[in-house]
Amino acid sequence: QVRLVESGGGLVQPGGSLRLSCAASGIIFSIYNMGWYRQAPGKQRELVATIISGGSTNYADSVKGRFTISRDNAKNTVYLQMNSLKPEDTAVYSCNARLPAIFSDYWGQGTQVTVSS
Fold first, then answer.
1. Could you give the 3-state DSSP secondary structure of residue 52?
2. How far apart, in whole angstroms, are the C-alpha atoms of residue 31 and residue 60?
3. In 3D, which of 97, 89, 95, 91 has the Cα closest to residue 109?
4. What are the CA-CA distances from residue 38 to residues 60, 62, 102 (Å)?
5. How far apart, in Å, are the Cα atoms of 82 and each of 21, 26, 106?
6. What does the pLDDT look like over 10-39, one tens digit per residue?
7. Which residues, other chains included, contact 13 with Cβ-Cβ below 8 Å and sequence gap of 6+?
8. What is the rounded distance in angstroms from the CA atom of residue 33 to the CA atom of residue 67?
9. Which candidate, 96, 9, 81, 84, places its Cα nearest to that of 46?
10. Burial label, 74 (beta-carbon count in 10 A; 0-12, 13-18, 19+)
11. pLDDT confidence of residue 39
């Protein structure tokens, strides 16, 4: 059974930082492309950042220079370090594991991030 479990969300003031974690089980983590997506109320889900199995990363323009995605294959965990947070970063952040070659696509339940004073 595949599980992706996010943690680290919460309430933070503008300009603050949070670190999200996503622990994966039931997959060969090291070969999967991992990503973070977010969905704000009334909006469509959007890509935040991805990191492929080889370690290359990609970011949405809105978070470049503020967010950093990383992975620890020994711990089967992907991280999202979020700095200089803005109110518009408020959303439910979800972890994704994808392996297109075998049409595998898994999602976590999500963790709420609220940026407010």
1. coil
2. 23
3. 95
4. 11, 12, 25
5. 11, 27, 23
6. 999 999 999 999 999 999 999 999 999 999
7. 115, 116, 117
8. 18
9. 96
10. exposed
11. 98
